[in-house]
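Below is how a single chain appears once it has passed through the pipeline. First comes the sequence as given, then the structure the pipeline wrote out for it. We keep one example in the README because the format questions we get most often are answered faster by looking than by reading.
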Amino acid sequence: MASYKPEKITYAPIPPKTLLHFNAIPWCAAVLTNPLLKPILSPSRTPKTPSTEDSLTAETLNTLRTIPHWQSFFVVPAGAAVATTTTTTTITGEVYVLLALGTGVDGHAGVAHGGVLASVLDEVMGALVYLHLAPNYAAYTVEMKVQYRRAVRTPGELGIRVWVERAEGRKLWVRAEVEDGVLGGPAVVGEAVFVVVGGEEGPGAKI
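Resulting structure:
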């Protein structure tokens, strides 16, 4: 788990409708032209029928009124290197995600529900962790903290930067910051701890 696994990343062009939508938003358009951000597939947005895996993001939150556009990017920082000590490993590589929120995720009128935002953060942090897992391993969220620094308005767009801060044993500490095109720092900040479980232990394993 010292670094991301290149074979787990699938680079792909941005879908035309998604590209058209985000290009119409100036701050999102700037993201699209950033040469350090490489568009990748978001596996959790694809239904796994007949399995119910990823149903939340692939179906429930994949409608015109919820989150119609979800574009992920991968970036390897220039000159990044894996630094290892006896107990802790520094993880390389980040994920950035652009989302379009509809009013179907509202709590208060015109404001995204905090529970939906927490679910989205959990999803994008987990997606990054997945890129660092060896074959036949899975990761589970065991702790998560979310700071809501200002209301997230809908309809609107979000940019989420996600990175692994450190790894120790089977645990990974992940952080996510949400921007919404408004000056003043991130609108929402999430921090989570994931525990890695070996594939042979299965989904019901003690974590």
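The longest helix spans residues 114-130.

See the next section for the split statistics.
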